[in-house]
Amino acid sequence: MTQLILFSIIVGLLLAVLMTPFLPKKRKNEEEIVRRHQPVKWFIGYAMIYSIAIFIFYYATNLDRNLSSLWLIVLIFAILGATVAQGVEKKAKGVIALLALGFGVYILSAPVWNADEKYAAVEMEEQIEITPFDETKKPASVPPQFVRNKMKKAFGQVPNTSYYELGNLQIQKVNGEFVYIAPVEFSGLFKWWNGKTVPGYFTMSATDSADNPRFVKAEMTYTPSAYFGKQVERHMRMDHPELIYYGKAQLEVDDEGKPFYIASYGKFITARDGFDVQGIVMVDTETGKTMKYALSEIPEFIDGAVAPEAVSLQNSYYGKYVHGFFNSLFGKKDVKIPSDEGVEASVNPVFDETGHMYYFTDFTSPKEEVDSMLGYALTDARTGEATYYTGNLEESYMDSEGALQIVEKKFIEKKWLGEMPVLYNFYGEASWLVPVLDSNGFLQNYFIVSAANPEISVYANSPNEALKLYKTALQRGGSRVEGTSNAEVKEATITVERVFKERVNEATIISILATNGQNYLISTESAPLGVYVEKGDVLRVQYADTGDFFLPVQTFENTTITPAEEG
Q1: Number of C-beta neighbours around residue 280 at 10 A
Q2: What residue ranges are annotated as transmembrane (predicted)?
């Protein structure tokens, strides 16, 4: 607060200098000075008024307190001051107005001439395809709308419920588990005045849709919904008035369950335009203690150091400015438009097999009514470094909007819709995984569709069940599981030690443990007679040696029932 008061006084004095006519004004054809305006009196009065106005403006807007933020105010006051000044004073203030105008032109024109700098700041490494997904893992695929609905129904766990409402969801890793975190927030000024603190936050699994929300007690004083000095983003600004923030403050929870708010800071690319992330400011929600970290120094428990809004902005730079500003408007050579289907500022958070968080975005053509994907990007949520994947250039990939349209058509009678589409490499095939929600926002199933061959699609109650179906669907569709010749087709004679059958949509999936220790997978969609397989049966199987935990069987012969019974 002290810094803001000093800043307001200094700026108020500057503006008072510009507005006060220090030289006396003479009436035409008279030598005698008829009015002096008492400049000291006017100067003091102006300084007090302008200091108060500047304080209110910067306190309310939370704008950074760099001198460059004053250019428009200085321009206006210099012009007004020059109109009431005389002689040399008039000329001096006119020069100041011209300098402020020149600086304003420099700032306002920056988007035209700094496009190359923006592109260079976010230029991505290019690769062809992401690594295949490990089918033994669970993707963080529970959609946030479904989680929010469940958390609202569990809101009765919150003390003094009428004071509060559910805040924004963030996905993160806590104690090795992927979870959604949603803070409890004040529902208005008077509720904040009476409540003073919020009682905690909700958490729920991001991989298990059957999980129920759990309320964690953790009193928080500094939150986005608090007011005045307790509003967390204003508190950050007070402690670091010169920093350039981008994006909203996000809640992060350490492995002991202690909550912190973080916000990304960085620098302008040029002038006051563009943004390049450099680090975070972290606030202890209970004590208000602030800590500033460069991206290379952030604590281990923080997953989303780079705000999703900053990632979305970087994606737009990479897609639009490949050949400069004017090409982005007219020729549009090599221009790529990032998707807006993401759940957090048009991007989707995803985790790799090690639990490291990335932001996913697909890019499409600027041409209207084109749903082919030009590529996709993964941005490291801790470092901001991004990789652009072109995909198999010999194939045309469907974009996220196209995947959502397929889901809508598939369930058109039920009026179910997809949300949070994410592209994975399933068995060497670029594939969209889309959670499907009903009209009330409740999760119904998971839909997987090939990006290159949209006719290959499956759905099931869980991602892993859908993956089992998808593996056999790829074989039926002529796609080679793993997508390369490395998936060698082998034959073996096995004895069934254990067998498990489960109904998934119109098919039955048969999971087999053989006496040789291997696990095999048969779908009745490709092998209808698999329903008769029992413990002790001897099978001659032809399978793809993918290296997966369950090896997909292409054809089989049950020699226990008949010597010539093929699936």
Answers
A1: 31
A2: 6-23, 43-61, 67-88, 95-113
